[in-house]
Amino acid sequence: MHANQRLARVAALLSLSVLVACTPGSGGSASGGNRIVTPPPDRGQQGTPNPAATPGAVAPSGTAAAAPAAPTRLRGSGLSSSQLYVAYREILDTYVDPVDDTQLIKAANDALRQGVSSQPQLPLLTMPLDLVDASSGNADRDWQSFGDAYDSVVAKMSDWAQQNHADWLVLRSMADSLHDGHTSFLTPDEAARSHETSFAGIGVLMSRPQDNQPPLIAEIFPNSPASTSGLKRGDRIVAVDSQDVSGQSVGDVAALIRGQPGTSVRIQVTRLNSAQPLEFTMKRATVQVDQVIGRQVPNTPIGYLKIRQFTDASVADNVLGILQQGGQRGLRGWVVDLRGNPGGSLNAVIASAAGFVDTDHTVIGYQVDRQRHQTPLETQSLNLLNGAAVVVLVDHDTASGAEIFAAALQEAKIATLIGSKTAGNVGVATQLTLPDSSVLQVTEQRFVSPSGAQLDGVGVTPDVQVDMTDEDLQNDRDPQLGKALETIVQKIGSGSTNGNGG
């Protein structure tokens, strides 16, 4: 009873006191990639070097392989078929599962057909697409058949090819045909945005719990334009500058919201209990987002540790520093918040886990390559918990490296997981930068948990299921955090520390 009374006071005091200052200026893209990116294999060929490391990724060191005998790029047509061939081979040679080349060529050909179908043209111009034969049994010969047709169409329809980016249609369609969250195509602008550590926007974190719903505002960052605009958590964004965005991806909506600092943007939202959409106009500003936040719940021996993204080594340094200071302060419990964490650098995940695991659980999972070889992800035990109880918060946007982290602590019975089932998007991708600075990302490895449980496409099921509703967000309620605090209080009150019981 005493513990429950204490919880009531704790839950009412969610203005947590700062425990450790985080590295200033560590930022993140609000459009998060839900990916782990590792350097692509060195093929000993020259190409365009990758730019700086993607937030949440190890800096890619690979380059675009040079296509053999690449012809001069067709004027106005973007990448030639020989340059697209490099991406085609990257998928065939690198993707974690065997890929049928006819699947890729069909996807590429269908995308091109669909792209030109709305254009008035003579049948002779697109006839080469009807003659593509991808059934020879030879992947290179099959590509040659499509490549000849592609070059013919974009040469004869150069204005259309330039305006509609025929090359990007092909690349995106091939990547999408694998239905894999880590395999994707990024335009040059999208690739550049993925490297941002700060951005000019309004300062909101968006989520889409259901595919058929407009993206909702899951978080509003302090000291941002949104924080004083009247927007609320739980608002669903339906239009940006009068453009309907209901069916667009969260990343596409984020791209529309961002722009030059000082410029204005109009956001239209729907809100529970509001009959009509609401519109808010604000000026964009550069928004810095701390990736790690460490605080102590006032008047309790409980710490709160928020990890937004495992961007790089500085995240692990901050996490370990917060745990160490918490131990020095005598904290007996930790709430580790991984909600909305899209993953990031595998090295940062492994290094952060060192602060939590004991000597019997230093393997936090296994990498599985296309030959089905398993490589352990091994860390060391730094013993920074000092027996403290741990609860980890997860949700449907907890993905990739964050899922590996959560599953490892759950299986080792170091932590109780609370929240909703995670994204099930767990893999290692290699990046190929093409001559126009667009990027093809290809899944080359997947992960299993320490026990061998599949994570990709499955996700991690929490020990205690607690969902967050739009109404909770709009009323600034957090039942997941409330349950986490209740669980920690019970563990401390019963003398229980690590483990799933209590």
Detailed description of the structure:
With 502 residues, the chain is an alpha+beta fold. The protein folds into 3 domains: 2-10 and 289-494, 2-enoyl-CoA Hydratase, Chain A, domain 1; 62-183, no CATH class; 199-284, PDZ domain (Pdz3 Domain, Roll), CATH 2.30.42. Helices cover 31% and strands 20% of the residues. A 7-stranded mixed beta sheet has the order 1-12-13-14-17-18-21, sandwiched between helices. Strands 2, 3, 15, 16, 19 and 20 form a 6-stranded mixed beta sheet that branches. Helix 4 runs antiparallel to helix 5 and helix 5 crosses helix 6 (158-164). The chain is globular, with a radius of gyration of 24 Å. It starts with a helix and ends in an 8-residue tail after the last helix.
Question: What does this entry show, briefly?
Answer:
With 502 residues, the chain is of the alpha+beta class.
Rg, Å, rounded: 24 Å
Based on the structure given, which CATH architecture of the largest domain is correct? Alpha-Beta Complex
What coarse outline follows from CA principal-axis ratios? globular
User: What is the number of helices?
Assistant: 14
Keywords:
single chain, 502 residues, alpha+beta, 2-enoyl-CoA Hydratase, Chain A, domain 1, Pdz3 Domain, 14 helices, globular, disordered N terminus
Secondary-structure map:
Layout: H1 2-11, E1 17-20, E2 36-38, H2 81-94, H3 101-117, H4 123-130, H5 139-156, H6 158-164, H7 166-176, E3 184-186, H8 188-193, E4 199-201, E5 204-207, E6 216-220, E7 236-240, E8 243-244, H9 250-257, E9 264-270, E10 278-283, E11 285-287, E12 292-296, E13 302-307, H10 313-328, E14 333-337, H11 346-353, E15 363-368, E16 374-378, E17 389-394, H12 401-411, E18 416-419, E19 427-433, E20 439-448, E21 464-465, H13 470-474, H14 479-494
Parallel strand pairs: 2-19, 13-14, 14-17, 17-18, 18-21
Antiparallel strand pairs: 1-12, 3-20, 4-11, 5-6, 7-8, 7-9, 9-10, 12-13, 15-16, 15-20, 19-20
